[in-house]
Amino acid sequence: MAANAEKSTHTQTPLQLLLFVDQRPSSQEQIQRLHKYLEDLKNDYPFELEVVDVGEQPYLAEHFKLVATPALIKIHPPPRHIIAGTNLVAQLADWWPRWKQSMDEYQNLDGESWPAGTERADIRSFAHVAELIRISEEIFRLKQEKEELQQQLQFKDRIIAMLAHDLRNPLTAASIALETLETNTDPNNGNSPRLTPALVNQLIKQARNQTRAIERLIVDILQGSQGNNGSLKIVPQKVDLGELCQEVLECLKHRFAMKSQQIKTDIPKDLPYVYADPERVRQVLVNLLDNANKYTPPSGTIQVSVLHRTAQKVHLSVCDTGPGIPEENRDRIFEERYRLKRDEALDGYGIGLSLCQRIIRSHYGRIWVDSVPDKGSCFHFTLPVYR
Ligand code: ADP
């Protein structure tokens, strides 16, 4: 009974064709000719046609492993048959009698002889399978994205803790200065010794300096969050900065040798790990060392030092004995495409330092340059400690 019901559904399924098209101008003429030919064939033998635009449903093309479009696929009756290439109309004309014949033969089969999996062989279930493939790919992608976002959130949490700590120091110093001023200059407070004018000035100066430090930190935070909104992707992890420095220096050593430049390092063994994206930090080191090598004359010295001055940050410096950077350009060299006129004859695009700045800011660190013109430059950056 069930077999009969199934047979009737299957014998009712007509010849089914799937036409894959694309939007390339070069395909349009062929697609039109094929449509017209298929229109005429409708009077010859009944069939069902579905048109799929590969641009809109690429996963469906992938499902059928198509290597070229336009392509015409006979979905039902099985076995599946694909014709593709330049002369589709001629190929269809050739195959059409055989497709008709296979349909007739299929309709005359009894249920037992249907090829395995036949019941799935219709256009709608193929579309469902393809949709399932697409959905599972989407789920995979979303899972990956979720993991990355969780990592970013974790990074932000740690950075916020670090910045809160950084802000506390100048804030405490400013508060102490203000409280001392308040209690010691209060005319109603007869018990406290009055401050000398020199001391008052010093305390005011201290409070002002500390508020400036707070302001600078806030600017860093804001710029850091801007850096993260850009296209720069940071995948932070526990990184041994000393080891990374040695690796980069090893890779570049032939370049320094070519200019007889001497490399000195001061990298303590007990450095804490930093919380950073190792590939991005490598880019920063390569850029800074590359510049040191390029702008320092032959026989100069390049020194890489790492310091762990506060519990929160590690500080790295790349110093050279090159021409230095005039004071008025020290901020501008971090702008995109900015190069000193003096160096225009040398190779370069003026983007290395701006990239370094974006990378370091995305790690909520700072990057800056110190320089004594004609004596050399020291590029510094900080990175958060891993805890
Ligand atoms: P590029 O080196 O491709 O010009 P950068 O963004 O790396 O671009 O550097 C910007 C400019 O800063 C350089 O053109 C150069 O004038 C100056 N500069 C960078 N590093 C040094 C250095 N170590 N010594 C002297 N000048 C430098």
Summarize the structure.
By secondary structure, this protein is of the alpha+beta class. Helix content is 51%, strand content 17%. The strands form 3 sheets. A 5-stranded mixed sheet has the order 6-8-9-11-10. The protein has a 4-stranded mixed sheet with strand order 2-1-3-4. Strands 5-7 form a two-stranded antiparallel ribbon.
Provide a descriptive summary of the structure in words.
The protein has 387 residues and is α+β, with helices and mostly antiparallel strands. The protein has three domains: 15-123, Glutaredoxin, CATH 3.40.30.10; 141-229, Orthogonal Bundle (Helix Hairpins); 237-384, 2-Layer Sandwich (Heat Shock Protein 90), CATH 3.30.565.10. 51% of the residues lie in helices and 17% in strands. β1, α2 (25-41) and β2 form a beta-alpha-beta unit. The two termini are 71 Å apart. The structure holds adenosine-5'-diphosphate (ADP). Adenosine-5'-diphosphate binds at residues 287, 291-292, 295, 320, 322-323, 325, 333, 339-340, 343, 348-354, 377. One of its GO terms (biological process) is circadian rhythm. Its EC number is 2.7.13.3.
Q: What's the total number of strands?
A: 11
Which residues sit in consecutive blocks of at least 5 with pLDDT less than 50?
Answer: 1-10
Structural class: alpha+beta
How much is the radius of gyration in Å? 36 Å
- The geometry reads as elongated
Give the percentage of residues in beta strands: 15-25%
- CATH architectural grouping of the largest domain: 2-Layer Sandwich
The first-level CATH class name of the largest domain: Alpha Beta
Q: Portion of residues in helices?
A: 40-55%
N-to-C order of helices and strands: HEHEHEEHHHEHEEHEEHEE
Ligand names = adenosine-5'-diphosphate
Note the total helix count: 9
Give the N-to-C terminal Cα separation: 71 Å
What is the count of distinct domains?
3
- What kind of sheet is the major sheet? 5 strands, mixed
Query: Can you give the mean pLDDT?
Result: 85
GO molecular function, one term: phosphorelay sensor kinase activity
Enzyme class: transferase
Keywords: ATP-binding, Biological rhythms, Coiled coil, Kinase, Nucleotide-binding, Phosphoprotein, Transferase, Two-component regulatory system
Pfam families: HATPase_c (PF02518), HisKA (PF00512), KaiB (PF07689)
